[in-house]
Amino acid sequence: GVPGMAGKQIAAVAADTGFEVRRVDVRGVKNLNELKVYERALAERDRAMPLVDIVGLREKLLELSWVKDARVSRQLPDTLVIDIVEREPHAVLRKANKFVLIDAEGNELDPIPAAGAKGRLVVSGPGAGQQVADLARLLDAAPALRPQVREAEWIGNRRWNLTFKTDQVLA
Predict the structure, then answer these.
(1) 59 vs 29, 73, 109, CA distance in Å?
(2) What angle do CA 112, 115, 119 make, to 5 degrees?
(3) Residue 49: which residues within 8 A CB-CB, separation 6 or more?
(4) Distances 45 to 19, 92, 121, 138 between C-alpha atoms, Å
(5) Could you tell me which residues come within 8 angstroms of residue 139 by beta carbon, excluding any fewer than 6 positions away?
(6) Distance CA 66, CA 87 (A)
(7) I want to staple 104 with a disulfide (CB 3.0 to 4.6 A). Which of 18, 90, 130, 154 is the partner?
(8) Within the chain, where are the H helices?
(9) pLDDT tens string 37-46
(10) Which pTM value belongs to this model?
């Protein structure tokens, strides 16, 4: 217990000399609700800098749907700097009663209204989200057709039905 007590005493001294979290600087946020980041980070506010759990805070940030990667660092004497790398929306996943933005790996980002799906590739079918990377490779093989595809439906866990903007379906 002596090393733990010594660590707490050193942290208390550091806090008394101004080395405690007073500000949080969040960078790299475009689509993510920034308040969700501050909500997790402000739990560390007014805590001595040596006691801030940088790794734990990073893990909490990685739980957010839009966060692909995060870096948390101390900027002495009183600032936590959080750099966020966001996931890029790739397509829209049609579920039973809603539309959800997904990234290129099929990670769900945020629900969107049906009007928000206009102009984006819509994927549907059981397991379609996990197959979206394969669909991207398939569409990359035919670059002239890619902009013409409006919707892709994953069928029988084995193939895609592609619906074009002309309402023609390629099975």
Answers:
(1) 17, 13, 17
(2) 100
(3) 11, 14, 15, 19, 20, 21, 74, 76, 77, 78
(4) 11, 37, 42, 48
(5) 145, 146, 149
(6) 5
(7) 90
(8) 2-16, 34-41, 54-62, 132-140
(9) 988 888 766 6
(10) 0.76
